[in-house]
């Protein structure tokens, strides 16, 4: 495991350094240009914003991959996620959302990511799958044992356990790639009479977007919390910007944490 992790980190460091050199060169050549915040909404949007009106009695807060490997400085993916998680205040924002939803008696559900030994034998994989398996992200001994789970990268962030382990939060079976098609999350939400979903978590451009797409296809009304999601920044592109662009195209609502908390508060 250690050799595999070191190999991955060396490869990752090389990629990040290459991207930084490119960005530094671009910054030097454009020093006289004004700084543009690409996360801001366009001044003159072409599309009408989603007009979702939250009904707490029919809604659920769904949080994806609230786990150590993605959100803790000790997590294996922190080298590529730490910047976005920190600058977007994802952890305190998720804490606000959890607290508001629990206080309002709103359904809360988790869609976790877990990998077992046999998942590492897949013969068909995409780039991010290979990355995760090389580093051992979200690895567990097996579905019927908690051996080594407590405090591991696959475990939930300690700050959130008071909300997650209250005996009321739905913890769905794990999703394996990005969307909820392979777990029981939609079934659990339907059984609670949920028709609206407030969506947050990780990774913004992968699992969050994939959950959004599937929920929309199933007829749910979905709002994404734009500052309670985060994604990697790699030479291949900024996952945060990629996600935000698609959220603007598809989501029924695109809210900040503060906006969402005001809607959830009883």
From TrEMBL:
Annotated InterPro entries: Isochorismatase-like_dom, Isochorismatase-like_hydrls, Isochorismatase-like_sf
Protein name in the entry: Isochorismatase family cysteine hydrolase
Record PANTHER family: PEROXYUREIDOACRYLATE/UREIDOACRYLATE AMIDOHYDROLASE-RELATED
Is Signal set as a keyword in this record?
yes
Keyword Iron in record: no
Q: Which organism is it from?
A: Sinorhizobium chiapasense
Q: Which UniProt keywords apply?
A: Hydrolase, Signal
User: What Gene3D superfamilies is this protein classified in?
Assistant: Isochorismatase-like
């Amino acid at each position: 495991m250690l050799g595999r992790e070191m190999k991955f980190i060396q490869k990752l460091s090389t990629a990040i350094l290459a991207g930084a050199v490119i960005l530094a060169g671009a910054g030097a050549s454009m020093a006289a240009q004004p700084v543009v915040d690409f996360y801001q909404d366009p001044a003159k949007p072409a599309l009408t914003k989603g007009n979702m009106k939250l009904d707490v009695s029919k809604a659920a807060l769904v949080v994806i991959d609230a786990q150590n490997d993605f959100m803790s400085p000790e997590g294996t993916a922190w080298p590529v996620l730490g910047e976005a998680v920190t600058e977007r205040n994802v952890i305190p924002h998720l804490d606000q959302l959890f607290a508001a939803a629990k206080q309002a008696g709103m359904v809360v559900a988790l869609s976790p990511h877990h990998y077992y030994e046999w998942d590492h034998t897949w013969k068909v994989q995409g780039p991010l799958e290979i990355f995760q398996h090389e580093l051992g992200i979200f690895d567990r001994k097996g579905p019927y044992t908690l051996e080594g789970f407590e405090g591991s990268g696959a475990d939930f962030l300690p700050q959130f356990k008071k909300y997650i382990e209250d005996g009321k939060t739905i913890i769905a079976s794990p999703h394996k790639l990005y969307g909820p098609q392979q777990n029981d999350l939609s079934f659990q939400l339907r059984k609670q009479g949920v028709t609206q979903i407030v969506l947050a978590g990780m990774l913004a451009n992968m699992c969050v977007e994939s959950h959004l797409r599937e929920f929309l296809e199933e007829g749910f009304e979905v709002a994404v919390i734009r500052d309670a999601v985060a994604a990697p920044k790699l030479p291949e592109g900024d996952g945060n910007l990629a996600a935000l662009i698609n959220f603007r195209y598809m989501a029924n609502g695109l809210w900040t944490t503060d906006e969402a908390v005001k809607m959830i508060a009883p």
